Amino acid sequence: MDAIVTHLAQDHFFSKLDLSKGYWQVAVEENCKHLIAFATPSGLFQFNVMPFGLVNAPATFNRMMRILLKGLRHVDCYLDDILIHTPTWEQHLNVLSAVFKRLREANLTAKLSKCCIAKQRVEFLGHVVGKGKLEPQLDKVEKIKAAPRPQTKKQLRSFLGLTGYYRVSYLIMLR
Fold first, then answer.
1. How confident is the model at residue 128 (pLDDT cuts 50, 70, 90)?
2. How far is CA 50 from CA 28, 37, 77, 168, in A?
3. Cα 49 from Cα 3, distance rounded (Å)
4. What's the distance, Cα to Cα, between the start and end of the chain in Å?
5. pLDDT, tens digit, for every residue of 92-119?
């Protein structure tokens, strides 16, 4: 994640795509279906698509997306979120076209209501990127501000996890 958000400051055009029901768009190979079978009172069933909850599902999905988008410059992907970022409008249109072509060829669809196309600023992975800035999302900052003071080690670890996520944003803003 850090590598994705730190190199976006010089870009001027952003599009964010969110794939619909990410894992459910990944077909399970026939010879692997028995590995994710489940039993009910009505009998034994097998998934035809990758279900949520499998320990290897995120890595499998991420590998599929890396292969799908390999060779495309100005494209970053984190699981089912795709960020297209370019310095020029012409580049943006070309990269968008290439990404849409690859998604179509792979029979992957994006959820239109969660996509932002050709914006100067977009929210991506808990950050707002654009106009030469990288900032944490305001609702996330408010959540940190409103968090109660940790009273136990477990609460402290949780709070440090929440605040540590934004360490890169703050280091960049301090430069």
1. confident
2. 6, 11, 19, 33
3. 30
4. 19
5. 999 999 999 999 999 999 999 999 999 9
More confident position, 17 or 168: 17
75-78/43-45 β-pairing: unpaired
Give the pair of three-digit tokens for residue 159.
């709070």
Q: Distance between alpha carbon 33 and the CA centroid of its chain, in Å?
A: 26
Cβ-based neighbours of 86, under 8 Å, separated by 6 or more: 11, 12, 13, 74, 92, 95
Instruction: 53-59: list long-range contacts, CB under 8 Å, 24+ apart.
Output: 57/23
Q: Give how far Cα 140 sits from Cα of 123, 135, 136, 171, Å.
A: 12, 11, 7, 17
Angle at CA 103, nearest 5°, toward 97 and 106? 140
Q: Tell me, what amino acid is at 173?
A: M
pLDDT for 137-165, tens place per residue? 888 888 888 888 899 999 999 888 878 77
**Rounded to 5 degrees, what are φ and ψ at 25?**
-90, 0
Q: What is the CATH number of domain 1-120?
A: 3.30.70.270
